[in-house]
Design the sequence.
């Protein structure tokens, strides 16, 4: 007679007991790690939140993954290009340096 196998720990682990890091990607603008929804880590952690960034194809044909904050910082007066992404402040710039317009 065959019996079902049970883990050596004596039962199933409760949700959250298996914690894998969620899938992340660095923002091309500021360099911060941004959560990517739907990764394999989300299956085990049951963290089904939204993605905090997006890939944009810009006017010059370049593609960049940007966090939502950097998307908001892109210029509104013209179609953004790779130069505009390069001009975005990095996470290090935002932390300690004074603003240019003070």
Sequence:
């Amino acid at each position: 007679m065959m019996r079902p196998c049970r883990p050596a720990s004596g039962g199933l682990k409760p949700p959250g007991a298996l914690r894998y890091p969620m899938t992340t990607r660095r923002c091309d603008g500021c360099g911060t790690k941004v959560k990517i929804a739907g990764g394999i880590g989300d299956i085990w952690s049951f963290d089904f939140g939204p993605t905090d960034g997006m890939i944009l194809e810009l006017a010059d044909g370049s593609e960049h993954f940007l966090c939502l904050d950097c998307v908001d910082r892109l210029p509104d007066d013209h179609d953004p290009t790779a130069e505009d992404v390069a001009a975005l402040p990095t996470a290090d710039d935002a932390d300690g340096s004074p603003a240019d317009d003070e």
Remarks:
- The helical segments are 40-45, 68-73, 82-86, 91-96.
